[in-house]
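Hi W.,

Here's what went into the run:
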Amino acid sequence: MPSIIFDGPPLDLAQKRALAQAVTAAAVKVYGLPPPTMVVVFHENPPENVAVGGELLCDRPKS
Amino acid sequence: MPSIIFDGPPLDLAQKRALAQAVTAAAVKVYGLPPPTMVVVFHENPPENVAVGGELLCDRPKS
Amino acid sequence: MPSIIFDGPPLDLAQKRALAQAVTAAAVKVYGLPPPTMVVVFHENPPENVAVGGELLCDRPKS
Amino acid sequence: MPSIIFDGPPLDLAQKRALAQAVTAAAVKVYGLPPPTMVVVFHENPPENVAVGGELLCDRPKS
Amino acid sequence: MPSIIFDGPPLDLAQKRALAQAVTAAAVKVYGLPPPTMVVVFHENPPENVAVGGELLCDRPKS
Amino acid sequence: MPSIIFDGPPLDLAQKRALAQAVTAAAVKVYGLPPPTMVVVFHENPPENVAVGGELLCDRPKS
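Here's what came out:
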């Protein structure tokens, strides 16, 4: 605690490492709590499991 | 935002498409916000990861 | 289960009633599960607790 | 981590204390992880923010 | 409802069964609600999807 | 989407503003998605609603 839960698209290992570090650093600074209290969880969701505006991401035309 | 997170059993693609459309339409109407603000996420959980009344769904007798 | 969690702005009672009914009806139809299995939770978030694009909703210019 | 998030009706302090202790003890035993890793969060939801079967809890007839 | 969502490491079937039973029993006792109202969901997260103190669990030195 | 949900202690307005900006900037960089896709939600939890190691934060001895 605090816990920080991401629901986003899949990430590779280097991306998770970078994002966890950056978000934890920002949270430590703002909450004023020690780093070991910060828990980050990445939920990786495939494009067919997310919709924006009622349209699944997998149904979007490729640009 | 709003975000709408489903935790339920697995769905096929047509089911996700239908549910995302219906829920987004209802939310747009009630919140009075434009469709692109609506995010729907489906978390699909296998029967061994959900319990009702303390019993895992995979342990339920088949009817 | 399924559980359906909304994180959005505050709603009045009539809005919650309408949205819960519509979403539950859609979910019953798509999941093929009985209505009493459907749980809807509304988390109401004040504008200063939500940011889109890094900007808190309470900081947005009024249109 | 693990984090354990409850979405339920309001609880008084003694109830929160009892439930946090019992759930943490069970989780420590099953996960095999030390107690300080266990985070429990109680989201307290008023009856008008929860629906079961499409009906808000505040609309249920009193028994 | 109540819904109880775990975000933790993977568990085997026997662990899920034991944890669901213990947590549901504790919740039934404290909330004073019948067992069928209690829904438990296990989100299993691989070590590369969780960070504590900014460090991914998969990057921790083995002890 | 992505949505980023914080469950932590209460924050003042300046803290929310700073944390939303920093986290969104980090997420934009790592996900490679435009800022308006990023939604941050702060759930503020009073000390009696959070337990670490089975102990409510409000029960901790003051240091």
